[in-house]
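Why do we care about 3D structure at all? Because function follows from shape, and shape follows, mostly, from sequence. That is the central idea of this module. The next example makes it concrete: a single protein chain, its amino acid sequence, and then its structure expressed as tokens.
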Amino acid sequence: MEKPYGLTMRGIVKNSEGEILILRRHPKSKTNPHKWELPGGKIEKCEYFDEAFIREIKEETDLDVKVGDFCEAVQDDYVHKRTVQLIMYAKDVTGEVKISDEHDDWMWASLDEIKSLEITSSLEKIIKKRNEKL
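And the structure:
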């Protein structure tokens, strides 16, 4: 049987210093436990992707954002599914970061700092595809 596809939205959320918000997945996560990733998550059935982007960023970080420009798209293959991740820039970011139970830590980081961490394969792919410019 073919593995099903899922569609995920991820956000590049930057602070006033140009640092990128990354979250560390919970150690008991089914995929990528304890690895750093961009905030975001699955699109629900019949949900517009821009609505999913705003909802997922809010759920995972408690930040209010608007959808900015498209950044990149990547595919990940897991044992039980395949995902396509659309990565968008967040704009008009307001609020204070408060993470959900899906993650156990967060930080604002430069691209060099991010590359030194244990990150998800999708984040690695994004950095490579963008020639290390986010």
